[in-house]
Structure formats: C-alpha cells, structure tokens
Amino acid sequence: MPFTTLLCDLDDTLYPPASGLWGEIAGRINQYMHERLGFPREQIATLRESLFRQYGTTLRGLQATCRVDADEYLAFVHDVPLERYLHPDPVLRTVLESLDMRRYIFTNADAAHAGRVLQVLGLEGVFTGILDIHTMSPYCKPMPEAFDLALRAIGDPDPRLCILVDDQPRSLGTARTLGMTTILVSLDGPSPDCDPTIRSLAELPGVLAGV
User: What is the DSSP string of 68-122?
Assistant: First the structure.
C-alpha cells in the first residue's frame, strides 16, 4: 500500500538538534516568562517542564494559566538569527523531492517561523503546506485532537497511508494509535513509541523502502 502523505515535524527534526537553534529558542521562552510574565528565573525550568507535560507545549500551558496572547508569544520566542544556526541543505532538498507523496510541515510552532526555517534551509516549495499551532488550535501535538484537525485540514487522508517523522516519541505514539507509520529522528537510538529510527532526514528514503 503506497504512502500518500508525509507529515514532518520542524524544530530538531528538519534540521539537526546539534545546530543549537532550539537552545536559543528555549532561552527566548525563558526570557519571555521572566520579562513579560514576571516569573523568577529559578522557577522557570521546573514550570516549563510541568506545562509541557500537562498541556503539550509551554505556550498552551501559558494560555491556559496566564491568558498569554499566542501571536505575541510566538513572535517573541522566534525572534532569533536563524542564519547563525542553519544553512542551505541541497542534499535534503533532493531527498525530500524524491518522495512521491504530499509533504507537509506539522509543527507546534507557527507558520511564520516554519517559513523562515524553510527559506534559510533552501527548502522553499518542497512542502505542500504547513500545519501549524493555529491549524490545531486550541490543541497541539501530541493531543489526538490536534492530529484530527491537521488531517481534516488536508482533506482527511487515510492515516494508514500517512507517515509522521518527529523527534518527540510522545507525538509518534499518538500517530501510531491513529494507524500512521512513524519514524523517530534521534541520535539516542530507538523508542518503543515509534517504528524505525533515523539520525537525519537524509536517511528517510532508505528507511521507507523497508516499511
């Protein structure tokens, strides 16, 4: 049964986690929580972990507990110099364009950030569309409702014909319960919540040949 749809996470999936970009974004989240919301710096790490576990993302947790404006938050935390961390990846472009299926970015970030990342990586036009945090509102990965909204936005493809590539095992676990094929991007080895594990998206065609 041929796959028809690829859903690909953005941060730490489309580009290597070793790039350091997510570390800078995380620092901006901490800065926002301290400067805009007044949380003591020493409490932020613990609070962020709690919000992440309970609500799926720090943003959704802050929206629920502090009535944070999503657009303001996203603009602040993604105001980072992408070119310092990311560079054009023509090999990845060739790999993705070789896949005979629809390709979507599926991210808990927003489309503005995703678009900037794609531009810096030289991947403009490679993806059919971007399924972002607004597409999934008021939910986010790994919530099943977020997946339902994302699939609805692209025409309700059969989940059995979809692939999710992500660096978060808990998102992959949700996708598996829906019938999707899941692939983990990780330098740390396989997870019980996913099918094959790859170190980078460049390995994707080889893995797909065996599933």
Answer: --HHHHHHHHT-S-GGGT----HHHHHHHHTS-SEEEEE-SS-HHHHHHHHHHHT
